[in-house]
UniProtKB/TrEMBL annotation:
Its main location: membrane. The lineage of its organism: Eukaryota, Metazoa, Chordata, Craniata, Vertebrata. It is found in: Endomembrane system. GO terms for molecular function: cholesterol binding; lipid transporter activity. Belongs to the patched family. GO terms for cellular component: endomembrane system; plasma membrane. The keyword Secreted does not apply. Residues 639-804 form the SSD domain. The chain crosses the membrane at residues 272-297, 640-661, 673-697, 703-726, 746-773, 779-804, 850-873, 893-911, 1098-1118, 1124-1144, 1151-1171, 1191-1215, 1227-1250. Keywords: Cholesterol metabolism, Disulfide bond, Glycoprotein, Lipid metabolism, Membrane, Signal, Steroid metabolism, Sterol metabolism, Transmembrane, Transmembrane helix, Transport. The gene is NPC1L1. This is SSD domain-containing protein. One of its GO terms (biological process) is cholesterol transport. It catalyses: cholesterol(in) = cholesterol(out). Gene3D superfamilies: Multidrug efflux transporter AcrB transmembrane domain.
């Protein structure tokens, strides 16, 4: 957009002064001056070429045309040609609003050519000029009188004309120091009439006279009061009204977007809180009524017992009423029979299997090793996914499809290497500019710092290194983003955005100074004047100072101020608090040889920046960045040792905790170091087998799988190991029973419980693989198979290992030194250890006391309802800085980014094929200039930018269609065909020919030509052009986005806007119904998941919960009540976990979802073992059965799950990555503690109240009596 040429440029020629002026006759019919006298010696050179086209009078000043033979004027044909050329410059921008351009030309036509010129013009200064030996008196200054009504209406018609490429106003460059915000009609005209602005050929003193005022006006002068057009009026020549984007009066009535939904309230109070409080009160009241009614019923039954009316029930050891009785055979239902048959089948099957494996341990170990090795060989083909796009965005997701479409038709979004520099504490200064008045410059906007930045910039630009991939020296030009010369770029073609680019990275331009005169005042102008002009007119080829420097970057594109400076308010660029330096590199595919070259260049960039940061002469405080992905991958790899330490701690605990330690002399005999090691190896082999299998079939892995899956399988495997080993240690060998038979019998007792948990978890994870998120899907697949393989190896290899260890222990041989035996014999009484007696004697009785039971239920109901309330306020998303490790240089960069960036990421509105851009209706539906649809694509985006807080759109889209229309417009002299000569009918540049061609086939020429002074506004289009109309894009800018919530909301609003545009464009005749407009920016592919992650998370977790209920019911013989209580407890653990996430600041995202799926699996370990143990107990009351389950199985679960996980989790607190600290340490700690609390506190109490009343083992006894009776 030709911003310095918007002002009327009447060439640098003076006009000759006729005799009538000397007599000062201000009468109609007299001219004040006539003809051109030559160049004004007081004004510097011109941008205009000397060659001009022919024209007719009405074409330049139609308001003065009175018809052939009736038109008189005070200008010659030569003047008229100069006037047309001068007006052409303003039309390049102002023709977006024809009435504005008409009003602009109107005044200058009146001043230059009106036949009544002397009635509005008063010549004030002349000089003598000698041309070809002839001395002529030339006018170099005059007063122009016009009414305020004409001036104000002209100004009103132009003040809102926009420059779409920048989002700014054209008037900003036509008002000098005042910009668009402070511009008035008088200031507008003053700037136009100031010859020192580098554009006006002579001084024009515009006098704006209110209606009826005559004081101070020379005799005969009548202020010009012609009719100025409103911006919503057609011009006399038939040009249409200005577009809505440029004229508020032309805008249709667009209703304001609805404000964000108000929070849900009831009576002015948080509605969710009210509902949760009501629900809490209802549940607690219902439970208390249940307890009271049960107490009263039992009390009445006690009275009946005293009277002899009933069978005495008695009291148990805890003071609880004994309400159960022995089950009679005829009371055994079909469900009970099924349960009995299931337990008998599983028990006998595992008993036989355990005996067989224990009898042939070496063969089983060999077979297990062979099978594991067969699976694990697939690891040779393993593929680790490190690309965040492939990791978190499904290939068939909308954002991924749109990204692939964009990258196919346009270049992928470039890689960014950026520095944000500040100089805190450095004092600023005031600068009294000749052109722009008094300006406040911050400490960072200082010449010495700019020169220092330029020095650093050039050092980075000159990076060179040997590339083995290219087999030659590589530099920035090999990998840089070069929008104007992508095929063979030089260093100066590379897109580097910074403040020194306003000076073309030239020290000489920065040091340039010149004396300049404006309004009779002469002052020195320097880099500060040029900077002030350029940040307000970044597309200018020449500033308005006598420095005459360009504002364009050396690579040929503009540097918008928000890319050069930051930390300013409104448009106060001189008060900016930060300088921004950005290097843009091409984003090559990973299989492209230049991808590695780009990575190497970025590493050299980091090395230079970090070295500079430590240098003693560095005046800056700054932050910097390169690829986020590289930093994430680097820190993730660095934290792998932390996970290894975590696993080592778990191994040491298992090895120590499994030992019996009956006496000091038998420590080495009774220890279970090798058994613990074997258990760890079983877990490791199951993970390797799972990874190898999926590598065989081509499902990639990821670092998160390497970190989480072993941890999960270790939790599951350790629990099963403890249950099996502790049951074996607590069991006494029966008379005449072999060691192998004992192992088989113990396995028959505990393996159904192990199967229950393992199968529930495996099915849970397999169903979790239905997730659309690649990371969640691959994790679920790997975890499901690993858990299944872990169970298989435990039933084979671990049973064999235990058999070998039992053989060693029975022979009193020491571990690790099997040849050494001890004389101390093993005690005959089974070793219960410390935990089982403590829980049986102290913990279970206290927990199951009548008062404690009530308190426990009430507390856990309160926790559950509170967590439901907190679920509504969990933060969804993952802020970028959380992906970085503590101490990462990227954290400082994000801090600077959020503090100093004024505009967010660019976003493209991309159109697919199927739309007819060649039709008038098609072009009108996408443009925003005069004659365009007020609800066109670009106009709707413009409406959105008027509500940035709701739309997250900051700068409207620039339209290549608008630029193409301007290029074809005869008023802008852009697109032409040769009209004569050997090239007749062929394309010629704007500077050479004049015949208009609006043929659409010349759009190829439009996107490939090199812009010049008359077509400068098209340069931005060249950067963002189209790909043969298979796709087009229109670039806008988001507001500065800082949080996941804002990024997600911006995506949602942009999609809604694009959908609205799609529907309106499909209504254009000839448009395909599969045509679509979609928004795209580099961040959408990462934040799309948060639009659906809540619903998808609920779906995935529900799928995981389903098998825990189904498998529990099936393996307990259709015991629906136990399955329901089991499911309820797991649900409560999951909900409470989300509630604690809200309190502890853990965001809900894909990583959290993986851990919540894991939480369901770990919860099964805490809950299902306890549920089955309660169901299999033969104690006479609910409370006694709960007590037995708590003591026997609870101790094993505590030792096997809780105490296995906790030490390893604590180690993760020392990880560098915040992701691991938050989503693995915090979240897994919460999951483990809540699982332990619910499994060992809440569930026993819940079962004591609502557990199945008919115990399976009682059924077994009753059914056995029936069978005996039948046999007899």
């Amino acid at each position: 957009n030709s911003q310095q040429q918007i002002v009327i440029k009447l060439r640098s020629y003076c006009v000759c002064l006729p005799q009538v002026v000397l007599e000062a006759r201000h009468e109609p019919g007299y001219c004040a001056f006539y003809e051109e006298c030559g160049k004004n010696p007081t004004v510097a050179g011109s941008l205009l070429p000397p060659i001009i086209p022919c024209l007719n009078y009405s074409r330049v000043c139609p308001m003065l045309d009175r018809g052939e033979g009736s038109t008189t004027a005070c200008c010659s044909i030569k003047q008229l040609k100069s006037l047309e050329m001068s007006l052409m410059l303003s039309k390049a921008v102002l023709m977006r609003c024809p009435s504005c351009a008409d009003n602009f030309a109107h005044l200058h036509c009146i001043n230059t050519c009106s036949p009544d010129q002397t009635t509005t013009i008063n010549v004030t200064r002349t000089i003598n000029i000698t041309t070809l030996g002839i001395v002529k008196e030339a006018v170099v200054g005059y007063q122009a009188y016009l009414s305020t009504s004409f001036a104000d209406k002209s100004f009103e018609s132009c003040k809102n004309v926009r420059i779409p490429a920048t989002g700014g106003y054209a008037i900003a460059t036509m008002c000098g120091r005042y910009g668009s915000a402070l511009c008035t009609a008088q200031r507008w005209y003053d700037f136009q009439g100031d010859s020192s602005n580098g554009l006006a050929p002579l001084d024009i003193d515009f006098r704006l006279i209110p209606e009826g005022v005559t004081e101070g006006i020379p005799d005969g002068i009548v202020p010009y009061a012609g009719r100025a057009l409103g911006c919503n009026e057609m011009t006399p020549t038939g040009a249409e009204v200005c577009s809505c984007q440029d004229c508020q009066a032309s805008c249709p009535v667009v209703p304001s977007p609805p404000p964000p939904a108000e929070p849900f309230t009831i009576g002015g109070v948080d509605g969710y809180l009210v509902l949760c409080v009501i629900f809490l009160c209802v549940l607690i009241l219902a439970f208390l009524l249940f307890v009271l009614s049960t107490y009263l019923l039992r009390k009445e039954e006690g009275k009946d017992s005293e009277k002899g009316k009933g069978k005495g029930k008695g009291m148990d050891k805890n003071g609880n009423n004994v309400s159960e009785r022995l089950i009679e055979p005829w009371e055994v239902t079909c469900t009970d029979k099924n349960s009995l048959a299931t337990q008998e089948f599983l028990g006998s099957g595992f008993r036989a299997w355990g005996t067989l494996v224990a009898s042939h341990p070496l063969k089983v170990l060999l077979a297990s090793a062979v099978v594991t090795a067969a699976f694990a060989t697939g690891l040779m083909h393993i593929e680790l996914t490190t690309d965040p796009v492939q990791l978190w965005s499904a290939p068939n997701s909308r954002a991924r499809i749109e990204k692939d479409f964009h990258d196919k038709h346009f270049d992928p979004f470039f890689r960014t290497n950026q520095m944000i520099l500040t100089a805190p504490g450095r004092p600023g200064h005031f600068y009294d500019s000749l052109l722009f008045g008094k300006q406040n410059f911050s400490g960072i906007i200082a010449k010495d710092l700019i020169l220092e930045l330029l020095k650093l910039q050039k050092k980075i630009q000159n990076i060179e290194f040997w590339s083995n991939d290219l087999n030659r020296m590589a530099s920035l030009k090999d990998v840089c983003f070069a929008p104007l010369n992508p095929s063979n770029p030089s260093l100066t073609d590379c897109a580097v955005n910074s403040l020194p680019q306003y000076f073309q990275n030239s020290v000489a331009n920065l040091n340039a100074k010149v004396n300049m005169t404006e309004l009779g005042v002469t002052k020195e102008v320097d880099w500060r004047d040029h900077f002030i002009y350029c940040v307000n007119s970044p597309l200018s080829f020449k500033d308005i100072t006598d420095l005459q420097l360009s504002c364009m970057a050396d690579y040929g594109a503009p540097v918008f101020p928000f890319l050069a400076v930051g930390g300013y308010e409104n448009e106060g660029y001189t008060t900016a608090e930060a300088l921004i330096l950005t290097f843009s590199l091409n984003n090559y595919p990973r299989d492209n040889v230049k991808f590695k070259v780009a990575l190497e260049w970025e590493q050299r960039f980091l090395d230079i920046v970090q070295e500079y940061q430590k240098s003693p002469g560095n005046p800056f405080t700054f932050a910097y960045m390169r690829s986020l992905e590289d930093e994430i991958n680097r820190t993730t790899v660095e934290d792998i040792p932390i996970f290894m330490i975590s696993y080592a701690v778990i191994f040491v605990y298992i090895a120590v905790a499994l030992g019996e330690y009956t006496s000091f002399s038998r420590i080495l005999v009774d220890s279970k170091f090798l058994v613990g090691l074997g258990g760890i190896l079983v877990v490791g082999c199951s993970v390797l087998a799972s990874m190898g299998f999926y590598a065989w079939i081509g499902i990639p892995s990821s670092l998160i799988i390497l970190q989480v899956v072993p941890f999960l399988v270790l939790a599951v495997g350790a629990d099963n190991i403890f249950i099996f080993v502790l049951e074996y240690q607590r069991d006494a060998r029966r008379p005449g029973e072999k060691r192998e038979e004992r192992i088989g019998r113990v396995l028959g007792n505990v393996a159904p419980s192990m199967l229950l948990c393992s199968l529930s978890e495996s099915v849970c994870f397999f169903l979790g693989a239905l997730s659309t998120m690649p990371a969640v899907k691959s994790f679920a697949l790997y975890a499901a198979l690993a858990v299944l393989m872990d169970f298989v190896l435990q039933m084979t290899a671990f049973v064999a290992l235990l058999s070998l260890d039992a053989r060693r222990q029975d022979g009193n041989r020491c571990e690790l030194a099997c040849c050494v035996t001890v004389k101390t014999t093993a005690p005959t009484k089974p070793n219960e250890g410390f935990l089982l007696p403590a829980m049986r004697k102290y913990y279970a009785p206290v927990l199951l006391h009548p008062v404690t039971r009530v308190i426990v239920i009430v507390v856990f109901i309160f926790m559950f309802i509170s967590s439901i309330y907190l679920m509504f306020y969990v933060t969804v998303g993952l802020d970028q800085e959380l992906a970085m490790p503590q101490g990462s240089y990227m954290l400082e960069y994000f801090k600077y980014l959020y503090a100093y960036f004024e505009v967010g990421v660019p976003t493209y509105f991309v159109t697919t094929k199927g739309f007819n851009f060649t039709s008038i209706a098609g072009m009108n539906a996408t443009c925003s200039s005069v004659g365009c649809d007020p609800f066109s694509l670009t106009q709707k985006i413009q409406y959105a930018t008027e509500y940035p807080d709701l739309s997250y759109m900051a700068i409207p889209a620039n339209s290549w269609v608008d630029d193409f229309i301007d290029w074809l417009n005869p008023g802008s002299k852009c697109c032409r065909l040769y009209s004569i000569g050997p090239n007749k009918g062929k394309f010629c540049p704007a500077s050479e020919c004049e015949t208009l061609s609006s043929l659409f086939e010349y759009w190829i020429l439009f996107i490939t030509f090199e812009p010049n002074t008359q077509t400068i506004k098209l340069r931005k289009s060249k950067v963002t052009c189209v790909s043969v109309l298979l796709a087009t894009r229109f670039m806008a800018y988001h507001t500065a986005l800082t949080t996941s919530k804002e990024f997600t909301a911006a995506l949602k609003i942009a999609r809604e806007l694009a959908h609205n545009i799609t529907l309106s464009m499909r209504s254009i005749p000839g448009t395909s119904q599969d045509f679509e407009v979609f928004p795209y920016t580099v961040t959408y592919v990462f934040y799309e998941q948060y639009l659906t992650i809540v619903s998808e998370g609920l779906f995935n977790i529900s799928l995981c919960l389903l098998p825990t209920f189904v498998v529990c019911c099936l393996l307990l013989g259709m015991d629906l009540r136990s399955g329901a209580l089991n499911l309820l407890t797991i649900i409560m653990i999951t909900v409470d976990t989300v509630g604690v996430m809200t309190l502890w600041g853990i965001d809900y995202n894909a990583v959290a979802l993986i851990n919540l799926v894991t939480a369901v699996g770990i919860s099964v370990e805490f809950v299902s073992h306890m549920t089955r143990s309660f169901a299999m107990s033969i104690q006479p009351t609910h409370v006694e059965r709960a007590k037995e389950a708590t003591a026997t199985m609870g101790s094993a679960v505590f030792a096997g799950v809780a105490m296995t996980n906790l030490p390893g989790i604590v180690v993760l607190a020392f990880a560098k990555a915040q992701l691991i600290q938050i989503f693995f340490f915090r979240l897994n700690l919460v999951i483990t503690l809540l699982g332990m609390a619910h499994g060992l506190i809440f569930l026993p109490v819940l079962l004591s109240y609502f557990g199945e009343s008919v115990c399976v083992r009682a059924c077994v006894r009753a059914w056995a009596r029936v069978n005996q009776q039948i046999s007899h």
